[in-house]
Design brief:
- The chain is 31% helix and 26% strand.
- It has 2 domains: 78 residues, no CATH class; 245 residues, 2-Layer Sandwich (BirA Bifunctional Protein, domain 2).
- The longest helix is centred in the first third of the chain and has 19 residues.
- The protein has an 8-stranded mixed beta sheet with strand order 6-9-10-15-14-13-12-11, with helices on both faces. It has a 5-stranded antiparallel beta sheet with strand order 3-2-1-4-5, with no helix packed on it. Strands 7-8 form a two-stranded antiparallel ribbon.
- Helix 2 runs antiparallel to helix 4, helix 3 packs parallel to helix 9 and helix 6 runs parallel beside helix 7.
- By secondary structure, it is α+β, with helices and mostly antiparallel strands.
Length: 403
């Protein structure tokens, strides 16, 4: 009799787990010696040795990879045969346990300070207007009505609506989606932690970041940052590029700087491109990885959704540690007319970059026009911070099912 004949004629296909069994798991190794049989079963990342002086009936048809239950010294129940190889994925329970402790630690940090956790939609009319981002879209169908919806690149717009509606200290750990991003540090789906403080500014948000990193490194028993440093963009351009960056520095000036520094800017078109390429090559890659670094006061064309300071800089900061950009914070813009103008500029930039031009969320502007309080807000990559703390190089290492 062959194994295939046994499976089709004798085996009771896919039985339930027996009420009483001595052991169960996937066969890792089979050793046969005359009438005796030794099985090494694998379960929960552990191995168990089972010895039979006399091999149970039909055990000759078992192979490595089968799932079995040892019912007695005379019976092995085949639960599920391995008919093909498993996908090349690795289940790491210890890493997942650490991840669960970490995510719970994030929640505990904010709830202990009386923040309220929100849940915003995963189907939205506007995913965000950031020019460089590609989006995922779908179509809602209700009877004869159809509407284009998107997966959010950030929960920001809905969290700001909540601020206008009366929320003051809020946070969310939200799944976010960005098309076209699969690298060692990017996945199309990832978790974003965003939190906001109404009637406040970036001073409190910066303290939150320091305290959060300290709390989580202590919780996971891993080394924290060597020190905490803050630099303005202008200071970094002076230190690393010997260039006096001003709020009104022109595209031509940045282009000349790139040529002087031998930065490849052949792909650059806008002033944002020149700024980004110089910053990436000459500054960001040189920041000391051991320090938690706040990079503050961006040029006005990099202000995004931030206010401008009195001296003309975008009032925002980014956070770096272990060579990773962890977070992006804003002294939030709450002026409806300026916000609408910037959103329109973003859509024009999207069009120029041949990106999908998305619709705007009119309810968001309705909330701004009704009055959103001055606020500090931040978006932090949940996987990114975990990677920094555990020294992981690839975001895919944290996932059981990465793309």
């Amino acid at each position: 009799m062959t194994r295939q004949e046994y499976l089709s004629q004798i085996w009771k296909s896919y039985p339930a787990m027996p009420a009483h069994s001595k052991a169960a798991g996937r066969i890792y190794q089979i050793e046969r010696d005359g009438e005796s049989l030794k099985l090494i079963l694998q379960r929960d990342q552990k191995t168990h040795k089972i010895q039979f002086e006399k091999a149970p009936p039909y055990s000759e048809f078992l192979i490595e990879g089968d799932l079995v239950a040892v019912v007695s010294s005379e019976e092995i129940l085949l639960l599920a045969p391995q008919k093909r190889s498993l996908p090349r994925r690795q289940f790491d329970p210890e890493l997942l346990k650490t991840w669960n402790v970490y995510v719970q630690g994030l929640r505990d940090f904010f709830t202990s300070q009386d923040f309220i956790e929100l849940k915003t939609p995963s189907l939205v009319v506007c995913p965000g207007t950031e020019p460089s981002l590609d989006v995922f879209s779908t179509t809602l169908k209700v009877g004869s009505r159809t509407q284009k919806l998107y997966l959010p690149t950030s929960p920001e717009l809905h969290l700001k609506k909540a601020l206008a509606l009366g929320a003051e200290k809020i946070f969310e750990i939200a799944p976010c989606y960005r098309n076209g991003e699969v690298t060692e540090r990017h996945q199309p789906e990832f978790l974003m932690l965003e939190w906001y403080r109404a009637f406040d500014n970036l001073t409190s948000i910066k303290k939150d970041v320091e305290n959060l990193v300290h709390t989580l490194t202590k919780l996971l028993k891993v080394p924290g940052p060597r020190s905490v440093k803050s630099y303005s963009i202008a200071e970094l351009f002076k230190s690393y590029c010997d260039f006096d960056l001003r709020p009104d520095t022109t595209k031509e000036e940045l282009k000349k700087l790139a040529e002087k520094l031998q930065v490849d800017v052949r792909s650059a078109d806008s002033i944002d491109d020149f700024f980004f390429l110089i910053f990436m090559e000459k500054i960001e890659s040189k920041l000391p990885p051991e320090d938690l670094i706040f990079v503050e006061k961006y040029p006005p064309y990099q202000a995004a959704l931030a206010r401008l300071t009195e001296d003309g800089w975008g009032d925002r900061f980014e956070v770096y540690w272990k060579g990773l950009e962890l977070a992006n914070a804003f002294h939030e813009l709450n002026h409806p007319e300026i916000q609408r103008l910037r959103s329109a500029e973003d859509l024009e930039k999207k069009k120029d970059l041949h990106k999908e031009v998305v619709s705007l969320d009119e309810e968001f502007f309705e909330c701004l026009e009704a009055g959103m309080p001055p606020s500090g807000g931040i978006a932090l990559g949940v996987e990114r911070l975990f990677m920094a703390m555990l020294g992981k190089e690839r975001i895919s290492d944290l996932r059981l099912f990465p793309l």
